[in-house]
Each structure stands twice: as C-alpha cells, then as structure tokens.
C-alpha cells in the first residue's frame, strides 16, 4: 500500500504510525536504532508507531531526515489522531490538509492556525477544570495543524480578526508581543492575508461567533462553527452558503491589508512599554 493510500484508508487516523513503521523497516532499522538517529527513546518510537503518543513536528522532521523521506510524514502530521482534540473537531484538520483556500473570522482571539505556543497555552489554561497534561497535549495538537503552511503549495489563508483580538492581553504583554510579531511574520508571506475589523464599526454580522470555511479540489466545501458548548463541522451546502455570505458581509467592514498591518504593528509596539 502506498503512502497516499494509507493516508486515505479507513484507518487513516493511525496512518502516521503505519507509514513511520513501514519506512523504518524498509530502511532496516530497529526501533532502538531509529531512536539513536533522531535521537529519542526506543519506547517513544514504538508508542508513536502504535498510535499511543502524538508525534511532534521536531520528531517528524528528524524522522524524515533519518529515513530519507520527502514529506510523507509531514503531510500526515496535521491529521494524525490526537486524543486532546474534541471528537466533533477531528475531521477539521483533514479538511485543512486538503484545502486550497481557507477563510476564517475570529471576533475574540487569534485563530488557531496563527497562534504561538505561548498564546495557545494561555487560552487553554482558562478552561475550567483542565490539567496541565491536557493543556500541553492540546498545544501540540494545535501547532501540528500549522504544518499546512509547510506544504509545497500551502493553502491561501484569508483571516478576518476583530480589533479586540489584538488588544485583549491574553497571557500578558510578552505573550501578546510575541503573538503579534508572529502575525506580522505570517502577513509577510504570499499565502496569508490578515485584515482587521475596527471596533469603531460597532455591530457586525460576526458578533454571533467565530467560524472557518475551506475549499479544496475533489472535496465539498466545509465549515467549522464554534459555540460555548460544542462546535460542529459540516459540508451541508445550505449551511456553507450562509457562512460564506456572513464572511463576505464582515469583510466589507475590514481595514485594507496595509492598514491592518500598520494597526498590528502599532498595537505590538504598545505591548513593549
């Protein structure tokens, strides 16, 4: 079975481990030898191959080098099964991985694909009753999704952010400064567009909550909706159409890209004081 076939198999959630094991055995390496090359423990290699431990991006890049691969594991990283992701959300990383265009609106926080580890950790720490292990595992999950930007042809990513996402001091000044600098770095790439909707416009069609929708060749358009209890992922044509119209309505209020970039820089500078 080819790597692509494995990635699309019914057991696709465990395909990362299957591909890793097949490549390791094809290279004639034991788990111990593989661990020496990465380096990591033999037990970690075994846990990842059996789908019992989440691979990190660092592990993935090291494994690709050790096994002379060409992105086979890196492509699977965003869709690898991770228990920290809520069940309803687990389809969405697969959608992101196959999308050529992703549009998102966030009225309160920076969207997950653009978050730094420290910013994500600060947001997750506010959840009631969570453990530190859950927080760290969920941070890893969130950062894994960002591997879509490392593809040879990354998706076009169009993000609309309410201005309050810039000024809410999540994690404190240092965390916010790092996060806003990361936004500026991503805005400098040819595949990321970030526009800010100013607070001064008052009410917008986006006050009901954040969402994202994705388009890709050979798949129906999908949306991801957020709410306080449990979000949802859907490819129902009517629902996708309504969300698309809402995005267009919000977009009309957004600053142009160059104005948005200047605003992000100005807010980032304030966090340096």
Note the main attributes of this structure.
alpha/beta; Endonuclease, Chain A; 13 helices; 6-stranded mixed sheet; 434 Repressor (Amino-terminal Domain); 273 residues; disordered N terminus
Walkthrough of the structure:
It is a single chain. Helix content is 46%, strand content 13%. The protein has 13 helices and six strands. It has helices at residues 3-7, 15-26, 31-37, 42-49, 57-66, 72-76, 92-98, 117-125, 132-145, 164-167, 173-187, 237-251, 257-270; strands at 101-106, 156-162, 192-197, 211-216, 219-225, 232-234. It has a six-stranded mixed sheet, with helices on both faces. The radius of gyration is 20 Å and the shape is globular.
Sheet with the most strands?
6 strands, mixed
Rounded radius of gyration (Å): 20 Å
Give the count of helical stretches: 13
* Strand order in the sheet with the most strands: 3-2-1-4-5-6
> How many distinct domains?
2
What's the number of extended β-strand segments?
6
Per CATH, which architecture of the largest domain? 2-Layer Sandwich
Average predicted local confidence, pLDDT: 87
CATH fold-level assignment of the largest domain: Endonuclease, Chain A
The topology string of helices and strands comes to: HHHHHHHEHHEHHEEEEHH
Strand content: 5-15%
**Global shape:** globular
CATH class of the largest domain: Alpha Beta
Summarize the amount of helix as a percent range.
Answer: 40-55%
Low-pLDDT runs: 1-14
Based on helices, strands and strand pairing, what is the structural class?
Answer: alpha/beta
Distance between the termini: 57 Å
């Amino acid at each position: 079975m080819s790597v692509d076939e494995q990635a699309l198999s019914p057991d696709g959630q465990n395909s990362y481990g299957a591909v890793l094991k097949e490549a390791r055995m094809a290279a004639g390496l034991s788990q111990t030898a593989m661990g020496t090359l990465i380096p990591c423990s033999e037990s970690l290699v075994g846990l990842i191959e059996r789908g019992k431990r989440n691979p990190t991006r660092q592990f993935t890049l090291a494994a690709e080098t050790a096994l002379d691969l060409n992105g086979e594991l890196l492509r699977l990283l965003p869709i690898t099964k991770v228990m920290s992701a809520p069940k309803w959300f687990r389809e969405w990383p697969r959608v992101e991985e196959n999308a050529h265009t992703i549009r998102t609106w966030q009225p309160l926080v920076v969207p997950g694909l653009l978050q730094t580890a420290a910013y994500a950790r600060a947001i997750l720490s506010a959840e009631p009753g969570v453990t530190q292990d859950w927080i760290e595992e969920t941070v890893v999950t969130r950062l894994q999704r960002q591997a879509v930007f490392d593809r040879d042809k990354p998706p076009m990513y169009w993000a609309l952010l309410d201005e309050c996402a810039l000024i809410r001091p999540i994690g404190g000044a240092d965390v916010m400064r790092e996060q806003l600098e990361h936004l500026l770095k991503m805005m400098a790439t040819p595949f990321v567009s970030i526009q800010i909707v100013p607070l001064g416009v008052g009410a917008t069609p986006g006050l009901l909550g954040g969402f994202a929708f994705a388009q890709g060749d050979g798949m129906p358009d999908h949306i991801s909706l957020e709410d306080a209890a449990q979000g949802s992922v859907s490819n129902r044509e009517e629902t996708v159409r309504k969300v698309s119209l809402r995005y267009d309505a919000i977009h009309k209020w957004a600053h142009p890209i160059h104005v948005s970039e200047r605003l992000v820089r100005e807010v980032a500078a304030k966090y340096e004081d």
